[in-house]
Amino acid sequence: MSEVVNSENCDENKENIKGDVDRAPEAEKKNDRAFDSGQNLVSHLMNEQEYSVALQSLIPEPTEEERKKFAEEVKRKAAETKDELPTFPDYPLADFVKEHKLDEKLENDEFYADLESEEDAQKLYKDMKNIPDVVCKKYYPDMCRRFIAQERRIKELEKMLWELPREDRSVQEDRFEILTELLDKVCKGFEIWDEHVERKISMGHRLVLESRLVHLIKSRFDIIETTCKEFDKIGGNQDEADREREWIRYEIRHCDLLFTELHEAFLKSYLEMEWT
């Protein structure tokens, strides 16, 4: 039985070997064709490179005038690309007011000059809560003017703060840092204005609430400005600097509280709920 199986396996192996032998010339031909194709490709690439080199040798060098024009064209395209990049607006509140024409005057210049002469917006508009919109609308351009004026103070105050004399890890640097914290906190007031400016709120309510908001912003900006102008009075005196720091810390916390109250009042007005 074993001999029969071995005989069959032997015959099968012979057939396989015979098939491999028969296919060998064909495989060899394929390899030859692949080799010839590779040779042709290398030859083709070499011819392309030689052609490119030859072509470049025929192209004349650019003149000085042509080089100059090319450089100018590169600069022009770079400038165009730069102009296309989005930029963050310096005064987003003022841009919004102008875009939506919120500052369009509804009365003569004398009327608005009289309003401008009153610096305390909170005092000027504190009794406007229940005045009809038809009467209140003419006052809103003055309110917008006040917010725009405070927004423009931000860069001035940043410049004043940056120019304060201070050394690394000094008392003056600590004072500088707490003042910048106050500035950052006060600027949150503009975010409150932005959040509620498009909500449908009674104009009388808006005048009262926005007058409180702009008064808060202005009074804290005044603190920063005065402190910067009188920065040398305390100088590096640690005790005085500590007292100043505690005072400004209180102002920061107070701003947080007042901003929260104003935000809630705006929402209540929008929802037609009572607020004081």
From TrEMBL:
Residues 1-35 are annotated as: Disordered. It comes from the Eukaryota. Residues 11-35 have a biased composition (Basic and acidic residues). This is Uncharacterized protein. It comes from Diploscapter pachys. The lineage of its organism: Eukaryota, Metazoa, Ecdysozoa, Nematoda, Chromadorea.
